[in-house]
Design a protein that fits this description.
Length: 290
């Protein structure tokens, strides 16, 4: 691309006034193949308009999570929560991204107790005192995606569950703090894994975070327990999710044969997850969806 050409990012600016300097810096860096260090492709880097689009989707996603949380109580079935969130998102001119994604049958994921992720809302699953649950919602507005999840509780929960939920949120925040420009995506996983082990927990590594913004799932894959200084280079304009799945027991998981979606802890232990979508900036990162 020539210096005076329109920049590849679609900003409308000339390349020399937009991403030329960044591209030159990327090309000048030495990448260590043994650590899987790779350059980010242009297609996953957002311009200012893209970021605003993601933020607009995030406003609706935030409202959907707030609504979902207000409905969590003993005796409520998880499909009721799903249906209310579906109506909220669609009434705001957006689409619940989970619905139909690779065949997923509902609009959101609700994962209770030993379910790690991808729990399918059901009229038969009725919340009871002592339950903990993760509600994961992704909203697509005008082709931009915002993805976040939170933990919720029903009635009185055990001290073990309280600690797991709190530490899992701390682990997510440690991962976010490690997400810096001109560092590598592996730094996120290294920070998460270190804190999890220090607190006696395990990290699910069969699943992880992902790029998110101009599509539901993009590169890079974000492991939450891996070596620092590994994986894809993080540069300003990249948006991705940090969403550690933390088990009170071992990290191994199983997938229910009945629906091919529901992921559970293999040993039946409790699992917790928090998720935010972040933007890599010039100086650190910014939370776009929470």
């Amino acid at each position: 691309m020539k210096r005076n050409d329109p920049c590849w990012c679609g900003s409308g600016k000339k390349y020399k006034k937009c991403h030329l300097e960044m591209d030159e810096k990327i090309e000048s860096m030495k990448f260590v193949g043994q650590r899987g260090q790779i350059r980010p492709p242009h297609k996953i880097i957002n311009n200012a308009a893209d970021v605003e689009g993601i933020k607009r989707a995030a406003v609706i996603n935030f409202g959907a999570l707030e609504l979902a949380g207000s409905l969590v109580k003993e005796g409520v079935d998880t499909l009721t929560i799903n249906d209310a969130v579906h109506e909220f998102i669609t009434s705001h001119g957006a689409h619940p991204s989970c619905l139909g994604f690779e065949g997923f049958p509902k609009s959101i994921c609700i994962s209770v107790n030993d379910v790690v992720c991808h729990g399918i809302p059901s009229r038969k699953e009725i919340l009871k005192n002592g339950d903990i649950l993760n509600i994961d919602i992704t909203t697509d507005l005008d082709g931009y995606f915002a993805d976040a999840s939170r933990m919720f509780t029903v009635g009185e929960i055990s001290l073990e569950a309280q600690r797991l939920i709190k530490i899992t949120r701390d682990i997510m925040e440690a991962g976010i703090a490690a997400a810096k420009p001109w560092h590598f995506v592996g730094d996120i996983g290294a920070a998460c894994g270190k804190m999890a082990r220090a607190n006696g927990y395990s990290v699910v590594t069969d699943l992880g975070g992902h790029g998110c913004g101009k599509a539901f799932h993009l590169d890079p894959f974000v492991s939450h327990d891996c070596a620092a200084d590994s994986g894809m280079l993080l540069v300003p304009g990249m948006s991705l999710t940090v969403e550690p799945m933390i088990n009170a027991g071992r990290k191994q998981v199983t997938v229910d044969e009945s629906d091919k979606w529901t992921v559970r802890t293999k040993d039946g232990s409790l699992s917790a997850q928090w998720e935010k979508t972040i933007l890599i900036t010039e100086t650190g990162c910014e939370v776009l969806a929470s």
